Amino acid sequence: MTELPICRTCGVQYGAASFDARTCAICADERQYTGWDGQRWTTLAGLSAAGHHGVVRPEPPGLWGVGVEPAVAIGQRALIVPGEGGNVLFDCVPYLDDRTVAAVHEHGGLASIAISHPHFYGAMIEWSRAFGDIPVYVHAADRQWVKRHGNVRLWDGETLEILPGRTLINCGVHFPGGTVLHWAAGSALCTGDIFTVVMDRRWVSFMYSYPNLIPERPSVITRALSLVEPFEFDTIYGGWWGRVVRSGAKAALTASAERYLSRLD
């Protein structure tokens, strides 16, 4: 499947049935954008030929990150979240190669994948198949954005424990299916950019669109905070290398929401 198209701007891989070379539906949505040079595509083979490679390295405190160098599209990194029943890959990246698969196996392989929102789907079906066709959990509210068929598990509701100690929470920020993962053993939330860790890493923020600077609705943020309130966490792992609130994260999330909402009066 190394020749299936990957959008250069968002990094999402398409299946043949959903592919229209004229446009990436995910980038055409107002939360994203089509590149200034127009719609462009690549493939896994093309990325490899251009010198991209996967990387697996620690993301302190306590997890392993998975990324691509040089960065592709949005440049996010995923997280390997350990626990009983096997590792969860939270979020995904647009690239995968044999060396990356081997590196992940050195840390116990993967038992499942969970995705925060469509911009981070990446090559999620390639990743699923590389580790034995493992399930990929996507909230059903975002079903329209799934552009390649595979072992995708659409889930409904507000929370779902996919493996012991790893619970998905549908916060609904950024996308209706916007999801974070609670890691009980690490007292942490993995949030992608549902709650995005900003440059001042004492804080997070919330947006309907990051590149187009469209704020999120207050009612959505308030609901999201109520959903994560029952969970204990001291760390928030955002969606990029080093974007981590290392301690006091629950208080930081509350303070960040209060600061954000106060600017919308």
End-to-end separation in angstroms reads 50 Å
Structurally, how many domains make up the residues?
Answer: 1
Which percent band covers the strand fraction? 25-35%
Q: Classify the helix fraction into a percent range.
A: 10-25%
Task: Indicate the CATH topology.
Answer: Metallo-beta-lactamase, Chain A
Shape: globular
Report the sheet with the most strands, covering strand number, pairing sense and barrel closure. 7 strands, mixed
CATH class: Alpha Beta
Reading the helices and strands in chain order gives EHEHEEEEHEHEEEEEEEEEEHEEH
**What is the CATH superfamily classification?**
Ribonuclease Z/Hydroxyacylglutathione hydrolase-like
Overall pLDDT? 97
Low-confidence stretches: none
* CATH second-level architecture: 4-Layer Sandwich
- Give the helix tally: 6
Protein name: Metallo-beta-lactamase domain-containing protein
Domain Metallo-beta-lactamase: 75-240
Please characterize this protein's 3D structure.
- There is one protein chain.
- The chain is of the alpha+beta class and 265 residues long.
- The chain has a single domain, classed as Metallo-beta-lactamase, Chain A (4-Layer Sandwich), CATH 3.60.15.
- 19% of the residues lie in helices and 27% in strands.
- The chain has helices at residues 25-28, 44-49, 98-106, 124-130, 218-228, 249-262; strands at residues 6-7, 41-42, 53-59, 63-69, 78-81, 88-90, 112-114, 136-139, 152-155, 159-163, 166-170, 179-183, 188-192, 196-197, 204-205, 207-209, 214-215, 235-238, 244-245.
- A seven-stranded mixed β-sheet has the order 3-4-5-6-7-8-9, covered by helices on one side. Strands 10-11-12-13-18-19 form a six-stranded mixed β-sheet, with helices on one face.
- Helix 5 packs antiparallel against helix 6 (249-262).
- It is globular and about 45 Å long.
- InterPro entries: Metallo-B-lactamas, RibonucZ/Hydroxyglut_hydro.
- This is Metallo-beta-lactamase domain-containing protein.
- Residues 75-240 form the Metallo-beta-lactamase domain.
